[in-house]
Amino acid sequence: MAEENKEQEEQKGGGKKKLIIFLLLFIILAAGGGAAYKFLVLDKQAEEEKKEKKAEKIVEEIKNVEELGIQFDVGTFIVNLTDKDADRYLKISIVLEVQDEKIKAELEKRLPQIKDAITTLLFTKSSSELKNSEGIEQLKEEIIKRINAILPIGGVKNVYFTDFVIQTA
């Protein structure tokens, strides 16, 4: 009788081991399925959202071109970039689009401040930041923010780069 109880207890212990192994396999498979779902489905959704944002930005740029404001040529800048592996220079010519003649007059009065703000910003950039369209768009947004912060009433609508060259020494 004692031997039969021992055998029943060993069989129960074996069943517990099987149950634990089954649960571990189930958890591993569920985690794998969740990861696959994330990489296959959610990443595609994020990519589609990016494409939609780019399309919206293109439509916005087209609208901005249709409503062209007053142009103000800030000038050409030649600055060193922050690349550590090689000396790189940026030559960039900038034209600002402003809302009206008042803002253009204010830009002319504050031109040294504006040039300083742009030069200081350009010194912080590396060639890798400026190699793609996202980096260039970000630079445009930063220039707009800096110049509008200098002007008492803001008014810079857009920035155009009429010359943009990165050169290696």
Quick gist of this model?
With 169 residues, the chain is α+β, with helices and mostly antiparallel strands. It has helices at residues 2-66, 101-109, 111-123, 133-150, and strands at residues 70-80, 88-98, 156-168. The protein folds into two domains: 1-67; 71-168, 2-Layer Sandwich (Tetrahydropterin Synthase, Chain A), CATH 3.30.479.30.
Report the structural category.
Answer: alpha+beta
CATH architecture of the largest domain: 2-Layer Sandwich
Write down the secondary-structure element order: HEEHHHE
Nearest-angstrom radius of gyration? 31 Å
Overall pLDDT: 84
Written overview of the protein:
With 169 residues, this protein is α+β, with helices and mostly antiparallel strands. The protein is 62% helix and 21% strand. The protein is built from 4 helices and 3 strands. It has a 3-stranded antiparallel beta sheet with strand order 1-2-3.
Structural descriptors:
Tetrahydropterin Synthase, Chain A; three-stranded antiparallel β-sheet; 2 domains; 169 residues; alpha+beta; 3 strands; elongated
